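Morning run. Coffee first, then this:
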Amino acid sequence: MIRRDRNKASVVLWSVANETPVTPARVQFLKTLAAKAREQDPTRLVAAALLVRTDGMTKIIDDPLGEALDVIGFNEYIGWYEHKPEDADKTVWKFAYDKPLIVTEFGGEAKYGLHGDPDTRWTEEYQANIYRHQLRMLDGIRQLRGVSPWILMDFRSPRRPLPGIQGLFQSKGTHLRSG
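And here it is:
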């Protein structure tokens, strides 16, 4: 992939993993992969979206793979997969590495056109409420250098059968489909 895509201006860094469980074999393999990526393309940084450990309202990123990365990525879904949107306001982040951070995924889902109060899941107002709290929280992270909402585009997903809400779609985006 690096040989194929290294001349594309849209590639800003190489990622070697996304939320992979921490094991010694995985850490060694991904450190080797990061070194290989640098060998193949020394002009770009190497990153990975690391798993986040939780201790109450403290989020901890201390994956040993972080030693081998130039940029630490992490995914965050406070208000969607865990807690309530306002819990992001009291979340504390701890990082084992003094390296640039990027949020590689965050956000929540909504059904296009479904309206209600900001505390009602699946409404556009709830989705906007999640983003308001998440962005305020993320703004307080000193090392943060970028974010990427997941995914801002609906896509088919057979694991999302919720009739009337998802209808076999992952609904974290702008809804370009009808119904």
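Confidence is low (pLDDT under 50) at residues 174-179. Good start to the day.
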